[in-house]
Amino acid sequence: MSKDLRSFLKDLERQMPEDIVRVKREIDPKFEITAIQQHLENQDKFPLLIFEKVKNLKGELSPFKVVTNMFATRQKCAVAMDLSCDQWRMETSFQFAKRSQNLIKPVIVSREEAPVKEVVKVGDEVDLRELPVLTHHEMDGYPYLVDAVIAPDPDTGVYNSSHHRMLIRGKDELGLWMSPRHLWNYCVRAAKKGEALPIAHVLGHHPGFYLGSEALVSMETDEYEVIGGVLNEPLRLVPSEAFGEKLLVPADAEIVVEGEVIPNFRDAEGPFGEFTGYYGPQRWSPVVKVKAITYRKDAYYMNILVGHPDTSILGGIPKEAGIYEEVKKSVPGVKAVHFPISGCCRFHAYISIDKKVDGEGKVAAIASLPYHDELKHVIVVDSDIDPFNEKEVLWAVATRVQASEDVDIIKKVRGGSLDPSSTIHAVGDKMLIDATKPVSRPYAERIKVPQEVMDRIKLDEWIQEV
């Protein structure tokens, strides 16, 4: 049986049954679902949520259940990578790195074999308003689709899969925002030829599909093969309704929206609450004409809550493994890399190393920067510091750093296009903090209780309730 959203839910039910919460009351997708998520987040709770009675954009009860918070904890991502839920630190990142580098070619199946073809709507039947599309935050201008968008390279046919926001402009029209990366490049090249670019928005699949879509690979790499590697099995594809074999879509998806990017035409898009926790401004962005919607009869509508851990962790895990490998080339003693939620899992990186000589901390920090342009602040710590424990990282900064010696700033280099602190678009500064102890001179010892006594004194033998 091929992996899909349903197989993941079964795996999660086996390992973390308490982490699945079903909401049976009728609910509106405009702010009400995200209000529940925000209430839970305020209590530091991030269960996977399944809303069973959700209105669509017409105000009618939708046949689709909404599932969200799939990536809101690393434990769930560990399960998605076929690990135990307690293997959520570097084990998950290493598993992703290993699998994403093991490319597996997809297989094409017939329409009869594809669950996503159980219901097909084309032409006048297409109506995006029948979907339970969420409006997430107060100033969001429209309801938005926020899952993975796939498209073939207009010249080579190689597939890209990446996450983009798409606003609902009407029954068969979407607005698309893209950072200047692969999909943007596809659209530019297609537009120069005066051609529309066929794309599809994949609303629901196994979480490995979306983790694979976050892999930082070259434009020549087929990301369907990357996703297959992350899933550890060939991704099943099926010809699209609107474009046939010119656009192959995931056969085991829950819902697929097929369309084409209209060449050389733009309209207002935004604002939208972005991964930074701030609103991205309104921009002139490409418009997508929707040609078909296909889905399972009992489909789940998957939503990723942008600007919260659900999207932060999804983007962070793939980057940790990649930066680990880059740093290892220069600093073999690297132990772990963590992108913390406090930095949106994009802007901050904590790197622990087994330091052998002075200067290695700065080398590790410098080596990490080219891998991802959104990375702004790198803190390098010794191997006695757990980079997944932010309290320890900041303690190391407080007690092992002198700013004049251990902090370096690189000004005005390429940065993220959505960084709200940038004064020049997609240009910013990088700060490197070497919070490691010196090797060439003595340094104060950390305090500790003798380990022999810690092993001998069993807390439950002395205190029954804490």
Query: Which of globular, elongated, flat, extended, rod-shaped describes the shape?
Result: globular
**What's the rounded overall pLDDT mean?**
97
- Poorly predicted runs are none
**CATH H-level superfamily title of the largest domain:** Electron Transport, Fmn-binding Protein, Chain A
Largest sheet, strands/sense/barrel: 9 strands, antiparallel
User: What is the terminal separation in angstroms?
Assistant: 46 Å
Structural class: alpha+beta
Q: What is the CATH C-level name of the largest domain?
A: Mainly Beta
Helical residue percent? Answer: 25-40%
Which range does the strand content fall in?
25-35%
Query: How many β-strand stretches?
Result: 23
* Oligomeric state of shown chains: single chain
The CATH architecture designation of the largest domain is Roll
Structure description:
The structure is a single chain. This protein has two domains: 5-305, Pnp Oxidase, Chain A (Roll), CATH 2.30.110.10; 331-435, UbiD C-terminal domain-like, CATH 3.40.1670.10. Strand 15 (272-273) and strand 16 (279-280) form a beta hairpin. The chain starts with a helix and ends with a helix. The model has no long low-confidence stretch (mean pLDDT 97). The protein has helices at residues 5-15, 32-42, 74-80, 90-100, 182-192, 207-212, 223-231, 309-330, 360-368, 390-400, 403-406, 451-456, 459-462; strands at 20-27, 48-54, 65-68, 107-108, 119-122, 144-145, 148-152, 159-163, 166-170, 173-176, 197-203, 236-240, 244-250, 255-269, 272-273, 279-280, 283-295, 300-303, 334-338, 348-353, 377-382, 407-414, 427-435. With 466 residues, it is α+β, with helices and mostly antiparallel strands. It has 13 helices and 23 strands.
